[in-house]
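Support reply, case 0932

Customer input (verbatim):
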Amino acid sequence: MITVAVTESEGFAMSALEWPHHLLTLDDWAELPETSEFHVEVVEGVLAVSPRPLVFHQRSIWRATYLLDEQLAPDFSAVNEVELLLNEAPPTVRVPDVLVAPASVLDENPARVRAEDALLVVEILPEGAKRTDQVTKHFEYADAGIEHYWIIDLDAPVSMITYRLVDGDYENFGEHSGKVELDVAGMPVVLDLDALIAGRVQKL
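Our regenerated output:
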């Protein structure tokens, strides 16, 4: 079993993941305690732990999810920070910032979404760990057969690169800034990139 160890240091309670000494199985991953302190994924059976995103990043994730979900066809839905199963053994489970999948799949309230059910994955680049989204996840999502992958960079001016799967590899389908119109599941979607970091977002 994987546990969270709690220690006391100068009057402050601190918690840390107790690292396993073996490659995790999917059952091991499911038993991992929830933590609000870390962003935790598993890559080929190995835990990948990073700091939770700050408020600025989290707000952008919520806004991107909202803007997409409000415009999708009724049989699709956008959700944020849900587990995405890319491989079972050894398991690779990512937690993308935004994911679009059939509403029928999400309505079942699954523990995690399978790669074959994911139409679009969106990652908003974190500070200090951009290579993971730009290189590692770029390969993983393509290898898992996810048709669309968008990468958003919040550094001014806010920009986005859109990739689409062609013959097993992602091809760059455009680099965007400002307000962009794209096709998702046969529906035109307008995404105002500047709204992701604005003080307030306009309701649709």
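We compared this against your earlier run and they match. Two observations from our side: Residues 1-15 have pLDDT under 50 and may be disordered. The domain at 53-196 is CATH 3.90.1570.10 (tt1808, chain A). Please reopen the case if you see a mismatch on your end.
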